[in-house]
Amino acid sequence: MKLTFTDLIVFENEDYILVNKPPRVASLDERTPDRSGQSIVRLAKAYHADAQLGHRLDKETSGILAIAKNPEAYRHLAMQFEHREVTKRYHAITNGVHNFDGISVYLPISPVKDGTAVRIDRENGKVAETIFNTLQAYKTTTLVECMPITGRMHQIRVHLMCLKAPIVNDATYGGKPVFLSDVKRKFNLKQETEELPLIQRVALHAYSLTFKLLDGKEQTFVAPYPKDFGVLVKQLEKFA
User: Fold this and answer.
1) 6 by DSSP, 3-state: which?
2) Of the candidates 183, 180, 182, 230, which has an alpha carbon nearest to the alpha carbon of residue 205?
């Protein structure tokens, strides 16, 4: 699917572009680029030559991503990330029914050998903290707001696993898929058809980002749910 960069933009001024990254699109160029060769950084540089990503999202994760248009804007945002002055809010659908009210998970993380996943490592891991709040509990799943204080790889995913609330369809960290037959009573599947999960990726979306612009004004940028995440939430609400 060919992406048009301007379709992804949710905010733009002379310093920053905020985009709503679609799922399954890499933030940075990958070592083994997919055949389409699309990445957010490549699209951004074609749109604005000096564009630099202020942070990154996992390939499967959708949502808000900040891009700096000049070196000063990049430094300004990088310092806020370094001093943990940026507020990131993610929405995740987790397996199981949970009531999280400002639950803080403070567990250090280190990468596993091949660097594609992480584990909790109390001896040698890097400090990692995430705060979780339940937004809505459904029949077998929960919509959770996740606020990472630090920015480690797969931090939200592994911390939710520690709370016995893995993210739906996140096989790496124990998440199970959700099917319509799980939530809808008297669900009839046509004979000889295989039922597909309601979402076919890790059910995680970077919902909002709050930081200070160069003029010192703090602003929150929100990325609406992409189609697959929106459909999942709608179905869960419908049959709750």
Assistant:
1) helix
2) 230
Residue 183 contacts residue 148 (beta carbons within 8 Å): no
**Residues facing 88 on adjacent strands:** 209
DSSP readout, 206-239? EEEEEEE-TTS-EEEEE-PPPHHHHHHHHHHHHT
CA 115, CA 212: separation in Å to the nearest integer? 32
Q: Could you tell me the two tokens for 25?
A: 């699109």
Answer whether residue 105 shows pLDDT above 70.
yes
Bridge partners for 105 per DSSP: 130
- Got the DSSP string for 87-139? EEEEEEEEES----EEEEEE--EEE-TTSS-EEE-TTTPBP-EEEEEEEEE-S
Q: What is the largest CA-CA distance in the chain?
A: 61
Which residues are within 8 A (CB) of 21 and not within 5 positions of it... i.e. 6 or more apart? 8, 27, 40, 57, 61, 62, 63, 64, 65, 206, 223
Q: Which of 58, 114, 121, 170 is catalytic?
A: 58
What average pLDDT does range 189-209 have in this prediction?
91
**Residue 32: its pLDDT value, please?**
58
Predicted TM-score of the model (pTM): 0.94
Active site residue 29: no
User: Cβ(213)–Cβ(159) under 8 Å?
Assistant: no
Q: What is the pLDDT of residue 31?
A: 64
